[in-house]
Every structure is written in C-alpha cells, then in structure tokens.
Amino acid sequence: MNRRRFIESTALLSMGLGMQSFIEKNKTHILTLSFDDGFKKSFYKIAEIHEAYGLKACLNVIAMGHEKGYVNDAFIRKETLGNFDDWNTLKRRGHEVMPHSWDHKNLTEIPLDEAKENLDTCLDYFEKNLIGYKPEKAIYNFAYNASNQELDEYALKRVRAIRTGGWLVFRDTKYHDIPSPKSNRLRLGCRSYGPDICDAHIESEIQDFLSGKGGWLILNLHGLDQEGWGPLSTSYLDSLLKRLVKVKNLDILPAGEVLS
Ligand SMILES: [Zn+2]
Question: What is the distance between the alpha carbons of residues 174 and 153, in angstroms, rounded to a whole number?
Fold first, then answer.
C-alpha cells in the first residue's frame, strides 16, 4: 500500500532569527516532537513517556474538539479527544499545551474573513480556558499545516510564533537556526508523515539531523498506535527518547520553550 504522503514544501520568511543560542553551549541540536490534535489516551501516554526521561512534551490541541458541534475528521474522532480538564492537568505537570485550531478546518479553504474569525475564536478560547496561557509565549499550530501569508500575519498579531507547513530555510540548511531570546513573531516550518505508522520515517529524519551540523528540527506528529494520522508506535517513542537523552549535543524541547 502506497498511500503515504510526504508533506514538504519550502518557505522563506525573514522574521529576525538570531544567530546566538541561549541553549547550553554544548547543545548544537534541538529537536521538537510536536504532537497534534489532542487525543486523550495518546497525550497522557506521550506525557508519561516524556516524564520518564525528564522531558516535557509539546502538545497541540483542537480548542473545541470536546464541544458540541465538532465534526469528525477521518483521523480525528470526537470520542478520542480530551478536554481542557485534561489539558490543564498536563500543563500543570509541566508539559506545553498550545492551540491547534478552533475546529480543525483548513483555513486556506474558507473565506479569509471567516478564517480570521475562526482563528480569533480559537485564541479567545485558549485565553479563557487554559490556565496560565500567555499569548506572548504562544505558538499557533495551523491545522493541516495549511496557511498563507495573510493568515500567518494575522495569527502573528496574537501569538509569539506560528507552526505551519514547509521549512524555514535559513543559511542554506533545511533546519531552523536556533533562535535567540530576542527573536519573535516567528514562522516555524515542520514536516509530518502519514497516514500509516511513521516510526521509520521519523527515525531517518532524526538520524539525518543528528549527522549534520545542527539547528532546530520540528517534527509534527499526532497520536500513538491507532490514534490519528501517521501515528507513532508507543514502543518506538519510548525507545527513541531513551536513546536521544544520551546524545550529548542534543536538547529535546517543546517549541515554546525553545523560544522562551
Ligand atoms: Zn491536526
């Protein structure tokens, strides 16, 4: 079966990435495993695995996934999604929870005014319901990593950074430069892979990254095992983090923390 789809495009946007790293001097590589959608079972498990290795998970959730009116996506079924009691619990445990759309619409496929309103509704909801949410530190993660320049600019009026499709090509590398604390209003590119289990692909992306000079790699993931588009297997995530925490020049951080 060859239904695999590899999302990749290239984007170049100069948003003032700095050269200097606040990360410990010996850390040349930063990896962010950016998990989307808000699958209750998977997200608790992802958090637990990260905690076992002293790490914080990067979790991005659909704001109204638990509300009446959520329309099931082929890969994101309402009964599998958590709510803000779950997200506040995970945040209290030290994990990062960020917005991943209001209702998972592809905002590039609806009228611009409607898309902007959708974005505002999502961010208003986060401000009201996620304890300790700070817009100036938030990253808006576009559904399907689908956006355009107008949407990027609109979202960046309300959040520190956006995560969307494609790479931000900087210094002729496919990885992000590690941002300085002064960098803001950033457009972060990422890759995702599916719809089948993505273990092998992630392994090769990371091997490739680690064998290079360094930078910041953001891989967009979803649920574990049976949950979501392009899931990662639980056993692979556990063995991956177990190995990666021993890599001396690598930090594994949620995206907001890299920018903090
Ligand atoms: Zn999604």
Answer: 23
Residue 154 belongs to domain with CATH number = 3.20.20.370
Find the 72 Cα to ligand 1 centroid distance in Å: 12
In the chain, how many domains are there? 1
Q: Give the distance (Å) from ligand 1 centre to CA of residue 75.
A: 9
Please check whether residue 61 is in contact with residue 228, taking contact to mean a CB–CB distance below 8 angstroms: no
Ligand 1 centroid to Cα of residue 36, in Å, is 5
- Assessment of whether the complete model's pTM goes beyond 0.85: yes
Domain that holds residue 178: 5-259
How big is the chain, counted in residues? 260
Query: CA 10, 228, 225, 257 torsion: positive or negative?
Result: positive
Angle between helix 40-52 and helix 234-244 axes, rounded to 10 deg: 30
- The model's pLDDT over 99-141, given as tens digits with 9 standing for 90+, comes to 999 999 999 999 999 999 999 999 999 999 999 999 999 999 9
What does the alpha-carbon distance between residue 219 and residue 190 come to, in Å, rounded to a whole number?
6
- What is the pLDDT, as a whole number, of residue 183? 67
